[in-house]
Amino acid sequence: MDKSGTAHGPPTARRRGRAAQYLRMSTDQQIYSLENQKDAIRSYADIMGYDIVATYEDPGRSGLSLQGRPGLQKLLFDVENGFADFETVVVYDVSRWGRFQNVDESASYEYRCQSAGVRIEFCAEQFANDGTIGSDVLKAIKRTMAAEYSRMLSQRCFIGQSRIIQMGFRGGAAPGYGFRRLLVDRSGEPKGILKRTECKSLASDRVVRVLGPPEELETVRWIFDQFVNKGKTKREIANALNARGMVTDHDRPWSIRSVKTVLTHEKYIGNVIWNRSSSRLTSQRTRNPASAWIRVENASAPIVSPELFDRAQVEAKARLFRMTDSQMLAPLAKLLKRKGALSGRIINAARGCPSSSRLKRRFRTLAEVYRRIGYQPLHNYDYIEVNVDLRDRRQEVIHELAAAIEDAGGSARYDPDSKLVTVNGEFTVAIWIARCRLSRHGYPRWAFRRRRLAGADLSVLIRMQPDDTAIRDFLILPGNEAKRVFHVLKAENGCPLDSFLFATLDILVAMARRAPDQISPPTMRQLHRGIGSPGRHFAGLKHAPEPSNPLRGYVLLRNFSHERMRMRRFVTSTNELRKHWDRTAQAMRQLMTVKAFRELLKSEGIETMPSMLMETIPPSHLALMRAERPLAAHQIEGICADALGLLENCVVPPIIFSYLREVSSDRQIEMAKIMLALGSVRADFAKTLVALTPRSHLADPSARRKRFHGIKAAQVISMEAEFGEVTHEFLNAVATHGVRALGLVAAHGYLGRILENPKVVRYFARDFPLQFAQFQWLLQIR
């Protein structure tokens, strides 16, 4: 009946697909750009049979980053949260999707859409984005070309701006106190004075700096006269100007900084200095060296003479003499006697006292200043000194790591602005430190700001001992794992987090070491865990309590099924890491046998690859890299000391020790490792582990085994064998998961570096397209 009805029914039309369009233009001057994109996408949709049901726009937005692009952010949010009622997103071309300087970033956003079941199609490109090798290669080249266009445009803009400055015109920013901006046409004829928020309307017009109102000029000359001839300080000058009711060019009261700007800026003798700081391609603003500054002398009329300006600079340097400690503290003692209390605000407002920032530079903290003058504040500020010591310890660790990487043949550069360490130009490391605080029951906890660990390829958290003077261990996480970590850490956090705990940073040195060197024993100073504060839950416990409630059959089955599933899931994820590692290493080893490829890498300065890619990580070194656990400070009758050391800083119900006493010492250690790795330190799970322990590992092998209602003896034996096999695989996975994941970060960093080279990309696309597609796939799963 169904076949007959189908055969004679009317023909059905092809269902039209539902699609969304994403539009972007860089500047507001491109008034027709969005309409042109819409027309092209509309024609493409008609040909492909799509109905455009949603539109995401980013008008006047740069394509260099995801920040500041609400349209693309909304698109990703809708797609990943199931709010998208379309299967395809149509974009005009690859450059409209973005001109990300890291082409992997562009690929990551497309991959996020594909993972949610939404395709990305480019209607103006000469390839179909269908996942074939050819389309992937062309798309990668197009992404590189889009990024290179932004770099070239940035360089051309910088050259053009530099030329304008050298011709004596203004390049932006406020003119400063005592000056105004004059708009002139292309022939130099004045058109009018620009107000603070006004700008030129014609590209051919130019802006020059001219002298401002006479009262402002007199104020500038008065400031120089008071400083040079009258010997007044910057603070006294600022207070005098504020007493007159005068304000700066930003309509703000005068301050020490604003007075210093007038006294030190060369524009007051007619010079122009440009490019003292810069920010290119959405990067953080950095200060440029003096050799990179663009200086134009006599670009405008001076307000003060060069001789008076030079005398002001000499006077400022002469006043910067180094006061002794007693000279700096004497005014504070008088201020304390007069005010009865001290604070940073009181110190800064007082005349004749060094500023609070200057005191901190000399004595590190205000708490140390208070201690030296005998002042006891109402609040306890000891934590400030601890934080300062921890910041210094963090810098020491960074310098030690950089030195160890240099000794291993790699390179490490620390950027104080981004707070990141760049290793071999391939991956970045964020290093932060966390104080140890004890809970009210005596358990150590480490709180930190999770956002500090974001944004780097690797994140390192230094966990301190309870006294905050010695390092306990290092938590070294890949970037994707750092986003999921909880902001308060316990001593034991289960897998996979605990698999990333290490006693030293030697794993980072191994990641930075270049081939053909072999992995050698650790080179950094060994920083073993010390004995932490004893957990108060069994500090006074000498004898384990006797077990009371027996294990029921349904509890045994429930725990067996649930924990077995968790262990298998973790083993599967570790095996996936191993597969990705093997694929990456095998592909690189094959390519390294090609002489032409080695010569190409050598000519580009990237011939040395991570030594990890040329060999498997020896298991003998894992024990040196992994954090060692301390022995317990207290002993309990019948319990192995190593097992107590594992459980000492965890919340352990005392009844668990009675179950541990029923098994051998080796099994006690294994049970402790399983419970900690799974985060299941529970009495019912301990009973389950005892019930699934082989007879040979019991404390009394001749003891009669318990029978469970509804479970046959043969079934228990089968469960025992299966659980033992899964446990063995699970503990092996816990031991290798962290090292494998960190090794992949180093491998992906090197692959990303060589795939950023246009010559290598062209070589891959021409001679090794299969390996090229495989490398791109490996970088996408990062």
Strand order of the largest sheet: 12-13-14-17-18-20
User: Could you tell me the radius of gyration in angstroms?
Assistant: 34 Å
Number of strands: 20
| Uncertain residue ranges | 1-13, 517-537, 616-633
Question: How would you describe this structure to a colleague?
Answer:
The structure is a single chain. This protein has 782 residues and is α+β, with helices and mostly antiparallel strands. The chain is 46% helix and 12% strand. It has 27 helices and 20 strands. Helix 6 packs across helix 27 and helix 18 crosses helix 24. The two termini are 53 Å apart. Residues 1-13, 517-537 and 616-633 have low confidence and may be disordered.
Structure in a nutshell:
The chain has 782 residues and is of the alpha+beta class.
Any descriptors?
alpha+beta, 20 strands, 27 helices, six-stranded mixed sheet, disordered N terminus, 12% strand, 782 residues, four-stranded parallel sheet, single chain
What are the SSEs and their pairings?
Blueprint: H1 2-8, E1 17-24, H2 33-48, E2 50-58, H3 70-80, E3 88-91, H4 94-97, H5 103-115, E4 119-122, H6 133-166, E5 179-184, E6 190-194, E7 206-211, H7 214-228, H8 234-243, H9 256-264, E8 272-274, E9 277-278, E10 286-287, E11 294-296, H10 306-319, H11 325-339, H12 344-349, H13 356-363, H14 366-372, H15 382-407, E12 412-415, E13 420-423, E14 427-434, E15 436-438, E16 444-447, E17 458-464, E18 471-478, H16 479-482, E19 488-490, E20 501-502, H17 506-512, H18 553-592, H19 595-603, H20 619-625, H21 641-647, H22 655-660, H23 665-678, H24 683-691, H25 713-755, H26 758-767, H27 769-780
Parallel strand pairs: 1-2, 1-3, 3-4, 14-17
Antiparallel strand pairs: 5-6, 5-7, 8-11, 9-10, 12-13, 13-14, 15-16, 16-19, 17-18, 18-20
